[in-house]
Amino acid sequence: MSRTEQTGTGRRRPPTIHDVAREAGVSRGTVSRVLNGGHNVSPAALDAVNSAIRKTGYTVNRHARSLITGRSDSVAFLLTEPQERFFEDPNFNVLLRGCTSALAAHDIPLLLMIAGTEAERRRNMRYIAGHVDGVLLVSSHSGDPVAAQLHEAGVPLVACGKPLGQGSKVSYVAADDRDGARDMVRFLYESGRRRIGTVSGPLDTPGGVERLAGYREMLADCGLPADDALIVPGDYSRAGGEAAAALLLERVPDLDAVFVASDLMAQGVLAALEKAGRSVPHDVAVGGFDDSPAALASRPALTTIRQPWDRISAEMVRVLLAQIGGDDPAAVILPTELVRRDSA
Amino acid sequence: MSRTEQTGTGRRRPPTIHDVAREAGVSRGTVSRVLNGGHNVSPAALDAVNSAIRKTGYTVNRHARSLITGRSDSVAFLLTEPQERFFEDPNFNVLLRGCTSALAAHDIPLLLMIAGTEAERRRNMRYIAGHVDGVLLVSSHSGDPVAAQLHEAGVPLVACGKPLGQGSKVSYVAADDRDGARDMVRFLYESGRRRIGTVSGPLDTPGGVERLAGYREMLADCGLPADDALIVPGDYSRAGGEAAAALLLERVPDLDAVFVASDLMAQGVLAALEKAGRSVPHDVAVGGFDDSPAALASRPALTTIRQPWDRISAEMVRVLLAQIGGDDPAAVILPTELVRRDSA
DNA sequence: CTGAAAGCGCTTACAG
DNA sequence: CTGAAAGCGCTTACAG
């Protein structure tokens, strides 16, 4: 080794492209070419460089690379949620975990950013521009301006769920909410239920809107009368589900089924039904949405609509990386599946 | 502006220290000094630079800075867990969220890394060295070698919970598990219970070991006989708690209380008791540990020991940043608190 | 207190 | 296919 080794307890100076070049007997340019795909490199040089890399234990200094390429080779996972709902909701975990490993397969680190307050949002936006190649956006209330801001700033972006009011300029990945809702309502109908209520999601969210639309469509398809008394909006929280169900029972005493737009709310619905002395599924059938861990933890276990979270996170990463690579925005809609358990 | 602006749809070239220097009428060195604390800068220069920064909208290019300082100004949150337990366990969320915002306050991004498999672990270890200033390590089975490896590699490191077998060379932050367990058992005793069993955590985890030790100590302090039939090891999962409670009931039919080493397991214990026809808390009192969201979601709501998660995450970040700044390792033990609800 | 200059480790036209 | 050279944007002794 020609450079001075550091003494003492510190870490050693890590090998650079320079060390590799000397070891391999080529120029630094050639080493760099090998690192970046090996184009225009002779087989002999390629071999020499590769074994020099192994021998020296070289890994690229990403800061130096980023300085020149302008890319950071990192991606942000941005959570815009005023409430702590996302952390209450197990879906979030699955999504975060899925995105982390999909990115890891490309050796791209995920920066977790949480924008609960306006100040945090500003801080995050400032950081994102110039420090991150793209953003995976998870935000329930899609009224918020983050998607628009990022899009305007030219930051590659994929949302989880369709961002309301963004046209189709912003990429997103979503489950087929409407179709899933239709499946559940059809299932309830086919098992003989005729007074089917619903606890919807918030109506400023795509899931809230679409699942309610599916419910309405299928009710009509089945020839059941539309009745606004059967519809109570929820807020995706457990407590909200419980309150909504209580209201529903008061308004519709002969209720025999409820389609609930999330499993967490369905837990609350189950609690309300138990308090009211209605047995599930005998008196009232309950269908959830998500197939989150909450569905299994419920008693009785929830019959629900599975969102394919693993595929959702994988597609979000795929679309984002494509977009960073220059592709145009794209929307991906993934099919859902009815999972039958004990609540309906 | 003297440099050429890019045309077309791309983002503009962001301002550099060079633009700020020209705007302020000083050298780039002076701008840099202002950026790094403003030492050895005259008030006039400082003002000029600061307003030039505002005017140009300058933000530092962290890659360039990192290239020269050798620091990345980022921190990894490394989750070492073969099972998906951490994502089932709501505690994880609170911890992750807390660390993210504590770091955000210092403008330091958190890189989320999940090492579920041996391959992922190797990948993460490779990334960490040289790409991250320090690591927040969250790992339940502390038998794993990650803490030792990181420590050996000279990476600043703070663990959540004491890493078994690391002596005191590795920093960690933990709740006072033993004391919390003592409090719960004392509480059960004082409410008249005399056949107090326990479902412990895994005995290769510090929480498992310490909470069991606290249980034993307090039983002795209360003059209750030690009886191994009263002790069943669990695995921190809901299903594990249910199985453990079933076993306990079989071995100790006159059981009148259980101290369960986690809220999630306590949910399983409640399920087992219900199946066995024992009412809670009348027949059997149940005390949990964590005060996670699971404690409130349980029915009846869990009497439990609160771990101060917000403080734990804040302290983890504080200790890590201190260590990155050159401080020696430190251990921080935080007090717990008994939260009384309906299960005991 | 301040400027000029070297250099961090890499990539990329450029000329051959 | 390959090397020499410029340059990405910053920090930091160094000399004044």
Description:
Chains A, B: This is LacI family transcriptional regulator. Chains A, B: Keywords: DNA-binding, Transcription, Transcription regulation. Chains A, B: It comes from Streptomyces brevispora. Chains A, B: InterPro entries: HTH_LacI (IPR000843), LacI/GalR-like_sensor (IPR046335), Lambda_DNA-bd_dom_sf (IPR010982), Peripla_BP_I (IPR028082). The structure is a homodimer of 344-residue chains. With 344 residues, chain A is of the alpha/beta class. Chain A has helices at residues 17-24, 28-35, 43-56, 62-69, 85-88, 90-104, 118-128, 146-152, 177-190, 206-221, 238-251, 263-275, 293-297, 309-324, and strands spanning 75-80, 110-115, 134-139, 157-160, 171-175, 196-200, 231-233, 257-260, 285-287, 304-306, 331-334, 337-339. Chain A folds into three domains: 17-60, 434 Repressor (Amino-terminal Domain), CATH 1.10.260; 75-176 and 309-334, Rossmann fold, CATH 3.40.50; 177-306, Rossmann fold (3-Layer(aba) Sandwich), CATH 3.40.50.2300. In chain A, the strands form three sheets. Chain A has a six-stranded parallel beta sheet, sandwiched between helices. Chain A is elongated. β2 of chain A pairs antiparallel with β2 of chain B. The structure holds a DNA duplex (16 and 16 nucleotides).
Which class do the helix and strand fractions of chain A yield? alpha/beta
User: What pair of chains forms the biggest interface?
Assistant: A-B, 50 and 50 residues
Overall spatial form of chain A:
elongated
State the total count of DSSP E strands of chain A.
Answer: 12
InterPro entries (chains A, B): HTH_LacI, LacI/GalR-like_sensor, Lambda_DNA-bd_dom_sf, Peripla_BP_I
Keywords (chains A, B): DNA-binding, Transcription, Transcription regulation
Protein name (chains A, B): LacI family transcriptional regulator
Organism (chains A, B): Streptomyces brevispora
